[in-house]
Predict the structure.
Amino acid sequence: MASWYLGKIRYQKEDEAGRLKTINETYLVDAVSYTESEARLYKQILTDASDFSVTAISRMRLADLFSYEEGEQWFKAKVIYFSVDEKSGKEKKIVNYMLVNAEGIQQALDRINESMRNFLIPYEVTDINLTPILDVFPYSADEDKEPEIPANMRPLSEVMAERAQAEVNPETAVPVENA
């Protein structure tokens, strides 16, 4: 299950008149901890400003996230499930929050209903609110891959092994300029 963190960044940007304007932006990051979410924000966010800072990170409780190709705005929906408690036989409400991107509130509601059409338990969408989230960064396994070594570079272990060999047998050592 994904753990979502809401990260807020602040930086200064020059406007058309040449004045510095403070910009505040909000992003959603899938991470395992506050520390990882901060690191991913610094890695993912590219601004025109050379200097920006993460001003706040908070955990966001989400049951589901529905992402579509089109839709610039992110909406948070409160969805209530109704289920029957097996022991007491009473109906109980389970509250979950979902995030969906859309062009407007009606499209957000339509997309939530579309995404949940196969849901067997009765549910009700009670609230839909526009969020300040600009972008969502889900976890990707590609991020964990080690970067490839460029063709003009060699692993440090090879260089250290050559140096150790050169100390043992200086006549067979490769000169540093050709290495």
User: Anything to note?
Assistant: The mean pLDDT is 85. The first strand starts at residue 4 and ends at 14. The beta strands are 4-14, 20-30, 52-60, 64-66, 73-84, 91-102, 123-130, 133-137. The CA atoms of residues 93 and 128 lie 18 Å apart.
